[in-house]
UniProtKB/TrEMBL annotation:
UniProt-listed InterPro entries: MoCofactor_Util/Proc (IPR052698), XdhC_CoxI (IPR003777), XdhC_Rossmann_dom (IPR027051)
Pfam families, alphabetized: XdhC_C (PF13478), XdhC_CoxI (PF02625)
XdhC Rossmann domain segment(s): 169-311
Protein name per the record: XdhC family protein
Domain XdhC- CoxI stretches: 15-68
Positions in coiled-coil regions: none
PANTHER family assigned to the protein according to its UniProt record, in alphabetical order: ALDEHYDE OXIDOREDUCTASE MOLYBDENUM COFACTOR ASSEMBLY PROTEIN (PTHR30388), MOLYBDENUM COFACTOR INSERTION CHAPERONE PAOD (PTHR30388:SF4)
Length: 339
């Protein structure tokens, strides 16, 4: 499953190519609480079909009534991009289903350029990171290749967003946990790769859509070329595989690096990496282990839920409270039992 951004762009391209009038809406600014973050996109076709989301649904309904003929309305207008605001008053916030005090601005592109979208999607499908700019006064758009993801920005005239490539997850080690984790990552729009040089573990793998990478894990991590949108998780339970992969990952810009294991095994791993491989407490700060948030999970499926939650928190730049740390939570349980 690809990311929602790519789905919106690809659907917009397909609708335009088929001759449909299509509106591309982007959440440009928010104040207070808002259902969707800035940069979120949706496409609206002249007959009322929608893909993507800019709210919990009420704003989408309003846009359908305003700009399509689905309910006998005027149909899709043309012209220059516009900025519309929702939720300015308490009544509007209630009407549009916004949280109390929430306000958002949308940039509406009434005539997206088909050649522009075709070029953008070709660049994204080629694995490139692309900066897309829109000048609201002229309606002109531009694409610039970049190597550094930037935060979405909008100053009232210029809208700038960095798109693709999608988030990637590299799993070291096949098995039940890896299968559940791969399934959840695919569902969340990650492309997933798997490395396990042990054929007895990969023979029974049954998750479709996962890229199998041959070779030893450290070589595979190096060839994978982790970037700021990459996560690497070692779940083989074999130090010969996990440790070398983690060593390569720790010297990459990957946003999440983690390894399965108990508190004792995680501590032993840290000691090995420091004693035998020249790592330090500082360099191991990026290493998550035990991985996941504490939800009392015991089964592979529940552990995968906890790990995916931690990966998504890191992706969204959310600092989790110490209380959800597996290590701290179990230490608190032990202390409570001793009292």
């Amino acid at each position: 499953m690809e990311s929602i951004d790519l789905l919106v762009l690809r659907t917009t391209r397909d609708w335009l190519a088929a001759g449909h009038r299509t509106l591309l809406a982007t959440v440009a600014r928010t104040w207070g609480s808002s259902p969707r973050p800035v940069g979120s996109m949706m496409a609206l076709r002249s007959d009322g079909r929608v893909v993507g989301s800019v709210s919990g649904g009420c704003i989408e309904d309003d846009l359908i009534h305003r700009y399509t003929n689905a309910y006998g309305g005027p149909g899709m207008p043309g012209g220059m991009p516009q900025v519309v605001r929702f939720g300015v008053s308490a009544d509007e916030a209630h009407r549009f289903g916004l949280p109390c005090g929430g306000t958002l601005e949308l940039v509406l592109e009434f005539a997206p350029s088909l050649p522009h979208l075709e070029q953008l999607l070709a660049d994204l499908d080629g694995g490139n990171l692309v900066r897309r700019g829109l000048d609201l006064r002229s309606g002109e758009t531009n694409l610039t290749a970049t190597t550094t993801p930037e935060l979405f920005s909008f100053d009232g005239r210029h809208m700038l967003s960095t798109l693709g490539p999608g988030y990637r997850l590299l799993l070291i080690g096949a098995g039940a946990l890896a299968e559940y984790l791969a399934t959840m990552a695919l569902f969340n729009g990650f492309s997933v790769s798997l490395c396990d040089p042990r054929p007895e573990y990969t023979a029974g793998w049954n998750v479709a859509g996962v890229n199998h990478l041959a070779g030893m894990p450290d070589d595979v991590v190096r060839a994978f070329a982790p970037d700021l949108r990459s996560a690497i998780v070692a779940v083989s339970h074999d130090p010969k595989l996990d440790d070398l992969a983690l060593l390569e990952a720790l010297h990459s810009p990957a946003f999440y690096i983690g390894a399965i294991g108990s508190r004792r095994n995680s501590q032993l791993r840290r000691e090995r990496l420091i004693e035998h491989f020249g790592e330090s407490e500082a360099s191991l700060q990026r290493l998550h282990g035990p991985i996941g948030i504490y939800i009392g999970s015991k089964t592979p499926a529940e552990i995968a839920v906890s790990v995916m939650a931690e990966i998504l928190a890191a992706k969204n730049d959310v600092t989790l409270p110490g209380a959800v740390s597996v290590t701290r939570a179990k230490e608190a349980e032990q202390l409570a039992r001793s009292l």
